[in-house]
Amino acid sequence: MKKFIFIVLCGFLFACGGNKGGENGDQVRINYTLDTVMVNPGQEILFLNSGLSQSQLTPDKKHLYNFNFTEFSIEKINLDELAFEDKIMLSKEGPNGVGQYFFGFLLKDENNLLIRCYNQDNIVDLTGKKKHQFDFKKVGTEPDKLSDSENLLSAVLLPEEPEVYYGLVSDWQEGKTEVAKLNIAEDVIQRFEIPIFEKAKKFEIEITDGGRFSMQKYIIHAGDKLIVGIEGSNELYVMDKETGTSQLHEYTSELTATEKKGNYPPKVGGIDEFAGIYRRILEEVGFMAPVWDEVNEMFYRFSFIMEFDDNAEKPEGSPFQQPSGAKVFLTIYDKELNMLTESAIPQLTNRPPFHFAKDGKLWVFENVEDEMGFVQLSFDL
């Protein structure tokens, strides 16, 4: 186990082991320790290629379920024991077939999973046996029903409403995004407009050769709240689960801008032209979704600014230059999403991958020589 201890006093960083905090040491404004822990994979080769981008935590945060694209399976990791525990094998075809093109999954309850594939949504048990199949696109009636050009993204479940799903409805033709509430049992869909999605339009770029760049958007259920946001702004909206109305939370940062500039051309001629603009976008601050720490009753939220080395060569066959690293910042909020403090985290030098709060610590996935590890941040606030 690696361990580093950092203490902040009068705006200066003093660190064990001679670490001086780097050039942004004066931006470190909280006391924290970092540990790195490793997961024992047993005889398994765990799937880490996607940075755990398709992973889900159980409500008690004892287990992590990680989708393995190579094997079309789900790995079950015991986070209390830091060890691989089990694997759920899924079928693409046959009586237990969930579809060919994996889209995402959710933990529906302690015994069942929602497996999403293209135009096919499935409820399967923890052995991979299919119990029910449906299609979100067929829920409800016109005009609220999902159209052919729409998809339900970032689906989330509330524990008290096992048949009600919330998600983002994105229309790739019109560039419009809304929040949708789908009641599967009653075959009803409701749509809600959130002002931040109108702001997101200034970050969109149409690529004439084909395609559209859109800022990442999200809806999460954390700390008993439905929270909506976009990567381009530090604003957060909290939705009322009954009425669908939303409350805006605005923040002022002393360490970063409050949002990306957004002064990008609405249309570019091709991918080569877009590549240069995309670098500009990454060099401006981006904000990730907050995560809930139920032990300390706080939200943690990472933001980041990507860095590039002008002397580095572009990958062969790609117009996109790869980032050389990132400046990473952490903002902490109370349970009502009031901002408490912010700090640079100079030991994190890349855009934070999959992360969550457990046991009063912030866990950040780290690939350590192709093994599953987590950097744990503990705070003294």
Structure description:
Helices cover 5% and strands 47% of the residues. β29 and β30 form a beta hairpin. The chain contains 2 helices and 30 strands. The chain has 381 residues and is mainly beta. It has a 6-stranded antiparallel β-sheet with strand order 2-1-3-30-29-28, with no helix packed on it. Strands 23, 24, 25, 26 and 27 form a 5-stranded antiparallel β-sheet that branches. The model is unreliable at 1-22 (pLDDT under 50). It starts with a strand and ends with a strand.
What is the 3D form? globular
Alpha-beta content class? mainly beta
Radius of gyration, in Å, reads 21 Å
Largest sheet: 6 strands, antiparallel
Instruction: Determine the strand fraction and express it as a percent band.
Output: over 45%
Main features:
381 residues; mainly beta; six-stranded antiparallel β-sheet; five-stranded antiparallel β-sheet; 2 helices; globular
Summarize the structure.
The chain has two helices and 30 strands. With 381 residues, it is mainly β.
Helix-strand blueprint:
Blueprint: E1 2-9, E2 12-15, E3 31-38, E4 55-57, E5 63-68, E6 73-78, E7 83-89, E8 102-107, E9 112-117, E10 120-125, E11 130-134, E12 150-158, E13 161-171, E14 176-183, E15 188-192, H1 195-200, E16 205-207, E17 212-213, E18 217-222, E19 225-230, E20 236-239, E21 246-249, E22 267-268, H2 271-283, E23 286-287, E24 291-293, E25 298-307, E26 325-334, E27 339-344, E28 355-358, E29 361-368, E30 371-380
Parallel strand pairs: 16-22
Antiparallel strand pairs: 1-2, 1-3, 3-30, 4-5, 5-6, 6-7, 8-9, 9-10, 10-11, 12-13, 13-14, 14-15, 16-17, 18-19, 19-20, 20-21, 23-25, 24-25, 25-26, 26-27, 28-29, 29-30
